[in-house]
Amino acid sequence: xxxxxxxxxxxxxxxxxxxxxxxxxxxxxxxxxxxxxxxxxxxxxxxxxxxxxxxxxxxxxxxxxxxxxxxxxxxxxxxxxxxxxxxxxxxxxxxxxxxxxxxxxxxxxxxxxxxxxxxxxxxxxxxxxxxxxxxxxxxxxxxxxxxxxxxxxxxxxxxxxxxxxxxxxxxxxxxxxxxxxxxxxxxxxxxxxxxxxxxxxxxxxxxxxxxxxxxxxxxxxxxxxxxxxxxxxxxxxxxxxxxxxxxxxxxxxxxxxxxxxxxxxxxxxxxxxxxxxxxxxxxxxxxxxxxxxxxxxxxxxxxxxxxxxxxxxxxxxxxxxxxxxxxxxxxxxxxxxxxxxxxxxxxxxxxxxxxxxxxxxxxxxxxxxxxxxxxxxxxxxxxxxxxxxxxxxxxxxxxxxxxxxxxxxxxxxxxxxxxxxxxxxxxxxxxxxxxxxxxx
Length: 440
Ligand code: ADP
Ligand code: MG
Description:
five-stranded mixed beta sheet; binds magnesium ion; Hexokinase_C; Nucleotidyltransferase, domain 5; binds adenosine-5'-diphosphate; Phosphotransferase; mannokinase activity; 440 residues; six-stranded mixed beta sheet; alpha/beta
């Protein structure tokens, strides 16, 4: 009898291991991802190869990180994938102060003379977290929507012009859109105000993306060889050319197929908040079908798309062996009657999915820091990364797993991670400030 139970458990364990094995990446797997990212970066930067590269390496026209001499009042709009914010940012000698959410234009400007209004025109930086072909700091054609957006009549249009026209329609004449900034760039700039070594921006929120300072001589898509320019990598699309097919699991394919952009943003769909919960849900469905979970009881709620949110991963992974109550509370919400063993197994699934996401993100970053180190001809390099995004900030293990893997993949780089506070909006205002400083 005891042997029968033990045998059954051992068989179940083996089946779970086999099911999760494709999600568990080895160091050589990750080194290969790093090498592929590096290859795609080169293709994206090259004049001849750029058009067909999956990582688009878009020039941002931001050539300097802040130097502390920026001054003035700036507006910032921040359109992410989930949040939209309006900020008034005041940059003074003492530092930066911000009022966020809703900004009311002060009566002296609102009710003053038109001349006053022209004099007090506020420069505005617009954080726009979607891939754009920038032609300059204030001209950016939307290449494609991502992260579930599909608003009509925008793709191919100049987003700055659209914003200016919208402002005109609303008769908001006291603002001047001077810069469109990707959220990665905004985050880098925001952290760069406090740390001059911050030359990389990273987002792990609804979606994922990164930017970094590249040598102009390596940017084949923009004239000129002097200095550096920040490159918005658009790394979410890494793998759209099939180069990551070997790591996609059956679960990733199911998730991809159910999105409004199948086959697109393949790397993003392994890493970011919009998708991790869905990957876990697909695994749980398979486990239920194989009678590895809930004693095989049929569960209809688990078949509802997006029912298993990415924030559940955070709660579940936070709970230790003694406190599995949170897991059971979540499961009860989903009308799932979970045993102790079920809870432990679900935590294992969440851990596998979030660990893989953090490791893949690290492989991408390793490609970036190693390229920067080589660019500068250094044996070792110290650099800081400004990070924004709720998944990175709130998941209990994501940042540790990311940093640990990055150390293994890029041992010659000493990388510091800085959390951006109100990052991308503040950064957009700083880009506007730098642009006004330069008299652009
Ligand atoms: P955006 O990407 O729109 O700028 P955020 O950075 O706030 O917005 O990211 C939102 C994403 O973060 C959501 O898609 C959600 O999946 C994820 N998220 C929200 N709460 C948590 C949490 N507690 N733990 C992990 N991920 C979370
Ligand atoms: Mg954001």
